[in-house]
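It is worth pausing here to work through a concrete case rather than discussing structure prediction in the abstract. The textbook approach is simple: state the sequence, then state the predicted structure, then interpret. We follow exactly that order.
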Amino acid sequence: MSGPVAPLAEMLEQLGERIAPTERKQLARDIGAQLRREQVARIRANLTPEGDPMVPRKAQRQRPSRKGAPPTLRQPKLGRMFKKAPRLMRLRASADDLELGWFGAAAAVLALHQSGGRDQVGRAANAPFADYPARPLIGLSPEDRLRILDRVASLL
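Step two, the predicted structure:
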């Protein structure tokens, strides 16, 4: 495994050889619950895992005017984005794995926002396409890694 979680994964593998599967599952569940709480708090605050603000929504276009009436402006969407995402976040823990994320239909939409990209807006065949900027929802901050390492070190 490579990337920012490689040292953490190696440490967890070594620990996994020392403790029973039921204890590993409980450890995964505890770590996952803590990570879920932190991720939900960040999403509700519209912050990326690094603590930066998320890219704001695009400005809304004007609606076309009706016979002689001035064009009306669409009201910008205020408040936080991804209002349902925290409620739909799921945790799956076993003795060997920990999965934190979205599953089912919500996973496809939120994966598009996680990495950014281009997709159709709507289900109709002639629906327009839109570019979505990357708005990372799930990730490990340096503080998250330290908390996990502290939790694992307490078992050693």
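Step three, interpretation. The longest helix spans residues 21-44. Helices lie at 6-18, 21-44, 85-88, 105-115, 142-155.
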